[in-house]
Amino acid sequence: MSQLIRLVYASQSNSPARAGSIDPVVGNILAQSRRNNDRDSIGGILYYGNGFFFQCLEGDRSKVEQAYERIRSDVRHREPRILRLQTVNRRLFGDWSMKYIPSDNDVRSFLELKGIEEFRPYDFAEPLIDELVLYFQHFQLPISADAVGNPANRSFKADLAAAAMDAKKAGLWDRIADALGLRKSA
Questions:
Q1: What contacts 12, CB < 8 A, 6 or more positions away?
Q2: Which of 60, 65, 73, 83 has the greatest number of C-beta atoms within 10 Å?
Q3: What is the pTM of this model?
Q4: Which Gene3D superfamilies match (predicted)?
Q5: In order of start, what are the domains of the chain with their CATH numbers?
Q6: Are 143 and 110 in contact (CB under 8 A)?
Q7: Dist CA 126 CA 132 (whole Å)
Q8: Are 55 and 48 in contact (CB under 8 A)?
Q9: Widest distance between CA atoms in the chain
Q10: How do beta strands 43-49 and 99-101 pair?
Q11: 98-112, pLDDT tens digit by residue?
C-alpha cells in the first residue's frame, strides 16, 4: 500500500531576478514539472518570489522522493532545502499537476499580515509554511490585496478560523494537522 506524503521545499534561483517580468526559467520548470508530475500522479504548487522557489509536492512517497531527487540535481537552482515532510490523509492539490502562483503582490500582502517583510522561506517556521501552503491551495486570480478578507477566499478564511478555534482544545501540531488534513509524520 502506498503512503501519501506532502513535501515542501525551497531553493534559490540561479537566474538573475528581473523586476516586473516573468522569468523564462520558471516557465520551463512549470512545463517540465507538469509533464513529470502528471506521469507520476504528483500534485502541487510552485511559487517564485524574491529569487526563491517555494514548491509543494504531494503524492505517493516513492514518486515524490524520486521527483525531489531530480529537482535537487537541477542546475537552475541551488541550496534546495526541505522545509516540511509529512504523511497526509488527503491531497490539497489533487487537481493540479503543478499549480503556479503568479502574484507576488498578493503573497507579499499575505506575509505582511503575518508581520513578515520579505519572502525568505528558509527562515519560515513550520506553522507559517503550513499556512502558506493552505493559502496557495485557496489562491485564485483575481484576488484583492487583503487576501484573507476577500469574499472570494471565504473557504481559506473559514479554514483558518476553524484552526484557531481548535487551538483552544489542541496543541499546535494538532491544530495544524486538523486544518490541513494531516496525520502525524512517520
A1: 51, 52, 53, 77, 78, 79
A2: 83
A3: 0.70
A4: 3.30.70.100
A5: 4-180 (3.30.70.100)
A6: no
A7: 10
A8: no
A9: 47
A10: parallel
A11: 777 776 788 888 999
